[in-house]
Amino acid sequence: MNSLNCLYGLAVIGFLGFLSSCQSPGGNTTGSEYMPDMAHSVAYEANVFGYYYNNRWGSEEDLHKMVQPRKPVSGTIARGYAGGIDAHETGRGVAYKKNGSVPYYYGDTEEERLRAIAEIINNPYPITTAGLERGKALYTIQCAICHGEKGDGAGYLVRDDGGKYPVQPANFLLDDLINSSNGRYYHTLIYGRNLMGGYSDKLSYEERWNVIQYIRSLQAVNKKLEYNEKLNTFNTTDVPYSVVAQKMLQEQAVVAAMDTTASPSVHTSGGH
Which of 13, 131, 206, 226 is in Cβ range 3.0-4.6 Å of 233 for a Cys bridge? Predict the structure, then answer.
């Protein structure tokens, strides 16, 4: 009888141990859950794959298909994804906050690079002091390590300790690069060139143009020419902000004159 009781006791202990092991969390299992729905949402959420066995949206494979990102309607741009000057800078247009993602319609091939060089000419942002300051900070962080603080291709990776860079980075002060269109710089920032990787994931749309403007300012200093928000004697593709502001004032004056002409004067008669 004692032996039988011992066997029963061992069996109960073993069963309890088995149940205890099933309740213990570890690896990919949470163990016992008092209220599973508190930890596992049964809701369908776009772009989030959180399959749970009580999920009401079908099988695991079905849910995986449902949560995949959808392609936007062809030709559309989400609000906030457009580039250009903010409304407060122009005094017109819809106010929005740019998030730095602007479509780029050129591929990563030599033919597309040449097309970008030929077609991307003007900088969409006027030259401003604030823009040049942002460009300088970004250039110092992202570019100066190779291209040098002066843009002469003599960054410390090339210059110090015999140089660790196997190929001389581009020297922006050479006439070839000075005379190149803005598209050459922008395309390189998107995809990279030779040993340089792309910076489309590191610089937003406006920041890329800020960096290009700062490079232009370095070239202008080397040529002893003016390149700032008041005057640009360096090229004809980048417009100083003073010119934009003057044009805006002229347009506002024209609109005001038209409104005055269109609105007849109101005459009153009689006593007060």
Answer: 226
